[in-house]
Design a protein that fits this description.
By secondary structure, the chain is mainly alpha-helical. It has two domains: about 80 residues, Up-down Bundle (Transferase, Pyrimidine Nucleoside Phosphorylase, Chain A, domain 3), CATH 1.20.970.10; about 80 residues, no CATH class. It is built from nine helices and three strands; from the N terminus they run H-H-H-H-E-H-E-H-H-E-H-H. A three-stranded parallel beta sheet has the order 1-2-3. Helix 5 links the parallel strand 1 and strand 2. Helix 1 runs parallel beside helix 3 and helix 2 packs parallel to helix 4. The longest helix has 14 residues. It is globular, with a radius of gyration of 17 Å. It starts with a helix and ends in a 5-residue tail after the last helix.
Amino acid sequence: MIQQAIHKLLERTHLTHEEAFGAMHSIMSGDASDAQIGAFLIAMRMKGEQAHEIAGFAKAMQQKAHPVTVDRLGEALDIVGTGGDGKHTFNISTIAALVAAGAGIPVAKHGNRSVSSKCGSADVLRELGVNIDLEPLQMTRCVNEVGIAFLFAPRLHPAMKYAIGPRREIGARTV
């Protein structure tokens, strides 16, 4: 599946939602080699991501993710930074999460260590003394009892372990 997706991307042709889902599923299942993952990510970046492709990736990731349940879901914010802007700008998404939680809005802050930027959300929170390495059940408890939880990518999305090496070696923003 991923080889067909790579060839399509190299032709600068958009993937269907289903093809994007299949490619991400291959990556997250450990069926793609590091070389295939790297080629896929670079080809996608060069072609440019489309909303329906990102939706396909997200669907595959949701199926593999550990669930975190938010009691006040209709009022909650799900905040994630884009990371990797290449300009070494301020990590605003983490500060925005803290401000929103301080205002009483339940916040689920997704994040990771820096991959292609100066500092990731995990780096900022760790420096502030926050225990970033919680299990998903502890994340659920934090967001519901404290009003904010850091959803550390390696804990929430363990299947992304297959992509972290190639992403880190690429050193540029990827989907």
